[in-house]
Amino acid sequence: MILVRAELADLPRLLQYRTDAAAWLKELGTDQWARPFPAENILASIRRGEVFLVKEDADHTDSFATITLDRQADERLWNDEERQESSLYVHKLTVDRRAAGRGLGVRLLDWAGDQAARRGCRWLRLDAWSTNTRLQSYYQGLGFEHVRTSTDPTVVSGWAAQRPARRSVAHGLSLFDPYESWEQRHVNVLGESAWDRILRSTWRLASWCHDYSAPRSRAAISAERHETWLPAAVLLALALWRAGREADVLADEIPLDAALPWLVGEQHQALYAAPLPVDTPVPVSSWSAVEHDDNHLATAAQRVIATHLVTPGVQLGDCLRALDKYSAS
């Protein structure tokens, strides 16, 4: 049994999950999910890579459960201090009635907790319909501790709960990544991971963007390097890594300007979505830190691109070969 990330084409199936669940809940005497959920909100979650579908295997087209896992803390449910704690939040967990009784809800929550722990989070959090005491008891039976029930009249799913994130393989669910072969090709052809190859390349490109024309101390140049150009190289590497995965091309064949839609264009909202590359390298402390300084670093990353973009569509490997030729001359 596998999980796959939902695609935009899966929207009708995701809406059907909610419609079917609402009908079943109505039979149980609750109005939960009676009102349609805005499709644009689901589409935004899909684009960020936060919506997952459960399938029997990669060859099956239909799914029988869904879960959304993100870092979106509702400020009406969680206070300022709690929102500062590293947590993942479960939303829209739904199991098709045809698959009921197989323990999928338990397994999905265990998988979500495993994902939270692997990302260094302290908590796995969720909320439940304020009047659905049966569902609240179900979550408490799985170790979730009730934190509070919101009295905000605009909140219908106001019962908030959490349990510690913990690693587990007992859930038996694996995330199917169609890009896995793309990563393996880099190891087979280039002898290193795609991320390592791209990051080493962007570091080289960024190193040519220092301004040595004005007289400055060595300390000032070093500070600029660590505060701007190295983090900008990391951000540029992330954008190129995304572009390469999407186009299914090796790192050296990624057009340098393919990073722009991810840095400042229509793809930017998905730039920091899971999955992310391995741990962020020094001097960047975390992906959250990169995202926090996104505007400044994106400007610097665009300058790196402009410095080396001799012609539109020039590939990353061509840029590196040009640097080698220039250095040897």
**What characteristic shape results from the CA principal axes?**
elongated
Strands in their spatial order, largest beta sheet: 6-7-5-4-3-2-1-8
Distance between the termini: 57 Å
CATH architecture classification name of the largest domain = 3-Layer(aba) Sandwich
Oligomerization state of this entry? single chain
What composes the largest sheet? 8 strands, mixed
CATH superfamily of the largest domain: Gcn5-related N-acetyltransferase (GNAT)
- Mean of all residue-level pLDDT scores: 87
Work out the radius of gyration. Answer: 23 Å
> What is the CATH first-level class name of the largest domain?
Alpha Beta
**Number of strand segments:** 8
- H/E order of the elements? EHHEEHEHEHEEEHHHHHHH
User: Based on helices, strands and strand pairing, what is the structural class?
Assistant: alpha+beta
Helix content: 40-55%
Instruction: Give the total of domains.
Output: 2
**pLDDT < 50 stretches:** none
What is shown here, in short?
The chain contains twelve helices and eight strands. The protein is α+β, with helices and mostly antiparallel strands and 329 residues long.
Description:
Helix content is 45%, strand content 13%. It has 329 residues and is of the alpha+beta class. It has 2 domains: 2-175, Aminopeptidase (3-Layer(aba) Sandwich); 180-328, no CATH class. An 8-stranded mixed beta sheet has the order 6-7-5-4-3-2-1-8, with helices on both faces. Helix 4 (104-118) links the parallel strand 4 (87-95) and strand 5. The longest helix has 30 residues, at 218-247.
